[in-house]
Design goal:
This protein is mainly beta and 120 residues long. The chain has a domain of 67 residues. It has a four-stranded antiparallel β-sheet with strand order 1-7-4-9, with no helix packed on it. A hairpin with a 5-residue loop joins strand 5 and strand 6. The two termini are 21 Å apart.
C-alpha cells in the first residue's frame, strides 16, 4: 500500500483490510476535533512474518518491491510525506536525495538478520 501526502483527506481513513497483519489508518481532522480516549485490550495475535511501514519525513527514495518468489513487482519513488506499507514479499531502497529521513515501523521482537530476512 502506498499513500501519497496529497491523499490524506478529512476524517478517519482506513486503507488496510481487517484481516491484514498491519492495520493502517490515516487521520485528517480540524482543530478541536476529539477522538475518545481508549486503552487497547490484551488480544492474542500471531504474526508469521515481518510487516514494515515507512514514512518519508524528508527527502526522496526509490522502493523496489518484490513478490514472495523474489520477482520485481514495482519500483516506486517516494517523497516527503509519503507512506508505504509492506505486508508481503520483499523490498529494497535506494536513497535519491541527501539528508533523506525515514521513520520505519515493524512488528517485533527482532530475531536477528539470520532469522528475520533473506537477501534477494
Amino acid at each position: 500500500m502506498i499513500a501519497r501526502s496529497e491523499d490524506w483527506i478529512e476524517g478517519l481513513n482506513v486503507i488496510s483490510a481487517d484481516e491484514d497483519f498491519q492495520q493502517v489508518v490515516f487521520w485528517g481532522y480540524q482543530k478541536d476535533h476529539k477522538l475518545p480516549a481508549h486503552i487497547h485490550l490484551d488480544s492474542p495475535r500471531q504474526a508469521l512474518k515481518t510487516q514494515e511501514v515507512i514514512f518519508i519525513r524528508q527527502g526522496r527514495l526509490r522502493a523496489d518491491i518484490f513478490t514472495a518468489d523474489e520477482k520485481l513487482f514495482a519500483s516506486v519513488e517516494l517523497k516527503a510525506g509519503d507512506t508505504a506499507v509492506f505486508l508481503n514479499g520483499g523490498h529494497g531502497y535506494e536513497i535519491l536525495e541527501d539528508n533523506t529521513k525515514v521513520l520505519e515501523v515493524k512488528n517485533g521482537p527482532y530475531l536477528g538478520p539470520e532469522k528475520d530476512r533473506r537477501r534477494i
